[in-house]
Specification:
With 320 residues, the chain is mainly alpha-helical. Among the domains are: 85-175, Orthogonal Bundle (Helicase, Ruva Protein, domain 3); 185-315, Ypt/Rab-GAP domain of gyp1p, domain 3 (Cyclin A, domain 1). It has 19 helices and no strands. It comes from Chironomus riparius.
């Protein structure tokens, strides 16, 4: 087998840890090849993306890059919305965008995936999508973090602005409502929910975090704002998004818990807050997260019912 490229299929430079993992785990590519063949067989069927248990299981094992746009649009309902509102995205450009918002977006464009070798050609499209979304949803408008979400979708959609707009709209308004508003009420509430789940399942780890003086909200705000983009390795974060588009918000909680559970022994060994912060910063270079197959298998093994989340959400519904 040829040596793995230092640049992945999305245009991102692979870290040394990922290169080493690929070299030492040739069966990883065997799994990817089998996965691609299975998806191609599914795609040849009549109405291949009809919601079913089989399709859910396929998605949980990862969607190939060449089918991600199609699967995301279908599973999120965005394809249907595009058909119902074929001119909505284009019509948004008839509006006058607010200068303050436009200026904020322009500042963040160069900061979005600067090391990605393909992303220069998407910068104008990223500006267009973010400006259109800010005009369409003035309650959210523009919030730092949306640039990473929209940027990643643009890469997957090969620059298709309309598809990116609708998929961004789904993630922000349906999957993570009130995460990106000025108050971030939904984000604060859901981090409290995850914190409560950690207290229940990993009380010793929670006590250690309190002892070190680093609140979970400081660690997790970026996870939730970016929906794990710029946190997990690229392919792993996209595997999480496959599930987000298919199964919804519960995946945010499962993924957060999985990260903490995987790091629990490391957290207990940490001696100071700087070492702890470094541990969380290096998630994207940790082989336990680089191995997207095993990570997602662990995510889906966690028992967590929607009802449990809903009860805890109600308990923290008064957060402002």
């Amino acid at each position: 087998m040829a040596q793995a490229s230092e640049i992945d299929e999305y245009g991102f430079k692979r870290c040394q840890e990922e290169m080493r993992f690929i070299e030492e785990n040739k069966d990883f590519f065997t799994k990817l090849t089998k996965q691609l063949m299975a998806w191609e067989a599914l795609n040849n069927r009549t109405n291949p993306f009809f919601k079913s248990t089989m399709l859910k299981n396929f998605i949980r094992k990862g969607v190939p890059l060449n089918l991600r746009k199609q699967v995301w649009l279908k599973m999120s309902g965005s394809q249907r919305l595009i058909q119902l509102h074929p001119n909505l995205y284009e019509d948004l450009f008839r509006n006058q965008f607010q200068k303050e918002i436009v200026d904020s977006i322009k500042i963040d464009i160069p900061r979005t995936f600067p090391d990605n070798i393909y992303f220069d050609k998407y910068k104008v499209s990223l500006y267009n999508v973010l400006s259109a979304f800010a005009s369409h949803n003035p309650i959210v408008s523009y919030c730092q973090g949306l640039n990473y979400i929209a940027g990643m979708i643009l890469i997957v959609c090969a620059g298709d602005e309309e598809a990116t707009f609708w998929l961004l709209k789904h993630l922000v308004e349906i999957v993570s409502p009130e995460y990106h508003t000025k108050t971030m009420k939904g984000l604060k509430r859901d981090i409290e929910v995850v914190t409560e789940l950690i207290k229940i399942r990993l009380p010793v780890v929670n006590e250690k975090m309190n002892e070190l003086g680093l609140p979970w909200i400081v660690i997790m705000t970026k996870w939730f704002i970016c929906l794990f983009a710029e946190v997990l390795p690229i392919e792993t974060s996209l595997r999480v998004w496959d599930a987000l588009f298919s199964e919804g918000y519960k995946i945010i909680f499962r993924t957060s818990l999985a990260i903490v559970l995987i790091l629990k022994d490391d957290i207990m060994k940490v001696e100071d807050i700087n070492e702890l912060a470094e541990l969380f910063r290096n998630i994207s270079k940790d082989v336990r997260f680089i191995n997207s197959h095993e990570f997602m298998k662990f995510v889906f093994s966690l028992k967590l019912k929607r009802r449990e989340i809903q009860v805890l959400r109600r308990n923290y519904s008064s957060i402002n």
